[in-house]
Write a structure and sequence with these properties.
49% strand, 7 strands, OB fold (Dihydrolipoamide Acetyltransferase, E2P), mainly beta, 141 residues, 2 helices, five-stranded mixed β-barrel, 13% helix
Length: 141
């Protein structure tokens, strides 16, 4: 029997502060967005930039850690799996959303570093803090 693989790794900056809520059973879930930018030169030498936005979902202990330690603008490494959700709204319109269900998070910049850079107009090197990592092995699906 063959196995499948669904693994995503991204490094980017938070687009908004994480939002945490609780399921009816009391399980914490945190959502936030991460922007990942890339640039390239065309054959003519013209520089292009593109930003891809990812919706991130973290559950359980990882959800609590993300809510406590992450802020808008902060650089972060996220590892997880892609999940597609489908639903119908009140008017019967079908919706689809693709999100990354995180099982690991690593902060790549300090909480205040991005805000300080914006205030000073400077770009500094991203230095990982004291090995702030988190794992979440249990999924509710």
């Amino acid at each position: 029997m063959s196995r499948g693989l669904n693994k995503v790794q991204i490094i980017g900056h938070l687009g908004r502060d994480p939002e945490m809520r609780y399921t009816p059973s009391g399980r914490p879930v945190t959502t936030f967005t991460v922007a990942v930018s890339r640039s390239w030169n065309t054959v003519d030498g013209e520089r292009h930039n593109e930003t891809e936005w990812f919706n991130i979902v973290a559950w359980g202990n990882l959800a609590e850690i993300c809510k406590q330690y992450l802020n808008k603008g902060q650089q972060v490494y996220i590892e997880g799996r892609l999940q597609t959700r489908r639903w119908d709204d009140k008017e019967g319109v079908k919706h689809t959303s693709v999100e990354v269900v995180a099982n690991e998070m690593m902060m790549l910049s300090d909480r205040g570093e991005r805000r300080d850079q914006n205030n000073q107009g400077q770009q500094g090197a991203d230095v990982p803090p004291d090995d702030m990592t988190a794992n979440e092995d249990e999924f509710p699906f």
